[in-house]
Amino acid sequence: MPIHVTCSACGKQYAAPDELAGQKTPCLVCGTPIPVPDGLMSTELTQPAMPAPKPVQSNGSNRTLWIVLAVVGGLVLICGVCLFAGVYSLFSGTRNEPSQTATNPLSVSGSTNPQPASSITSGPSRTTGNANADDSASPASDRLPQLTPAPDNPQLIADMPIAVGRADTALLIDADPPLAYSLASERMDYEVRVHSLRDGQQLKRAAVENARAIFAGASDGSRAVVADSFSYCKELQSVRLDDPPVVEAKWQPYGNTAVRWATFVSPEQLLTCSKDGQLRMWKLPDATQAYEVGVTYREVLPRFTPDRRYLYDVSGCTVRFIDVTNGAYAAGVELETGEAETLLSYPTLANDGKTFWAFVNLPRARSRMFGCWDLQTRQRLFLTDMPADAGGPRRLTAGYLLMGEYLFSMKHRKFVWKLPRFRPLAVMPNGVCWVRSNYSSDLVLTTVKVPDDSLIPILEEQVSKTRTFAKSGDAVSVDVQMKVQPPSSDRDFPQKLTALLRQRLVEAGYQVADGQPRILRAVVTEKDTGEEILFQKVAKSRSVGEIGTGETESVREIALVGSIDLIDKSGKSYYHVQRSRSPNNEYQTLELKLFQDLNALLMRRRWNGLLDQLKQSLRLNPEYMMFDMGESQVSVVLDPEWTAAQSAAARRQNQAERDRRRSKITMPDQRVRPPWSVQAFAVPDLDKVLLKRPLEIGKGRVHELKFTFPNIAQAAVRIEGPSSGNQRSFLDRYDMRTRKRIARIPLAADNVLVDFRPDGKLLLLSSDRRLNKLQIWQCGEEDSMLTELDLSTKTSQVKQALFVGGNQLLTFDGRRITLWEFPSEKLVYERPLNTERCTLSWGRRYFVDIDQGRLGIYRTSDGQLAGELASPPMTAERIRCAAFRHDGKAIAVVTGKRHASGGSIGIWSLDDGSLIQYFHTQHVKDSIAWCSPRHLLLEEKLFDLMVEAPVWDYPQFLPDSPDSRGWFIGVDAQQVQHLAAVAVPSENVAETIQKVLETAPAIVKPQGAVSLELEISSSYPRPEETKRRLRETLTRKLTENKLQVVDGADTVLRVHWGGVSSGVNYTPFGFENGERIFTMPNRDVVVSVGISQRGKQAAWSKTASVYLPTVDYRVNWTVGDPAADLQQQLEEALFKRLENLTTPAILLQDFRMTIGRSLIDLSGERTLVNGRFR
Question: I want to staple 350 with a disulfide (CB 3.0 to 4.6 A). Which of 355, 484, 685, 993 is the partner?
Answer without folding.
Answer: 355
